[in-house]
Amino acid sequence: MKSADRQTRSYLMDLFAEHGFNPRTDLGQNFLIDLNIIDFIVDEAELTSNDVVLEVGAGTGGMTSFLAQTAAAVISVELDTNMHMLASQIAEPYENVTLLHCDALKNKNHFNPVVLEAVERELAVDPNRRLKLVANLPYSIATPVISNLVATDLDWNRMVVTIQYELGERMRARPSTSHYGSLSVWLQSQCRVKLLKKLGPTVFWPRPQVNSAIMKITPNRGAAAQIADRRFFQDYIRRLFHQRRKLLRSVLVGMYRKQLAKSEIDELLNSMDFGGNARAEELSVETHVDLANQLHARIHEEIKA
Among residues of the chain, what percentage have pLDDT more than 70? Predict the structure, then answer.
């Protein structure tokens, strides 16, 4: 690896001083300065010449150059003008890097179409190409970036990302724990989620106030195939977990009052042997998938009738 690509703390401090600006805390600009950690992330990504890498949060391009040396193509996204300029200088020697100066998200539920178009264009070059998300994700957008990629129809292969440690705990949380929620169910219903490494603040500059984690997320095609309608399921868990501690029956009656009578909700819950005190936060991922599928089927029966 060329020394210019090795962005240590001193290198970054000198770089920022030279250009006369500072990292922006409002954009979650905390740069990885532990070179072993960057190597670890790239190794876990298992990049090949068939891979298209999406990197959200290019920063100064410290990871971008690592990715470009192996992947077929890198789509790197950076919102901040100063960071985009610095990343452009690092990425210039690599013809396989597309550096986008934009927000990765259109809104919290959708990717920016510009990003999706760039990814789809690279994937279309060769049917053997695979999409991987490899990034030091800004804390503020980590959840929508990950959950929205799962929600797309893109045939993604792997995510290896640094995120806030607490978010990693939410992703892999089990039922009846404090971190278990809609994100846990959404990801685990379609993916295998693994915490690879916990990171302290010292591996970043500037240092964040919290711990971080490197997460690996891979598709679980068999589990995902059990979901009858992914849009319905995503809406179901989002709305249900807004009132996670309320009794399941009362929440479902309110959610589907326009589509199903209370008696139909009761009949469904009784058929699944739910007790009267069941709550969303207590149900397994598999149970949520089953319940959502049955609700979806009953609602569509009502529509047809």
Answer: 97
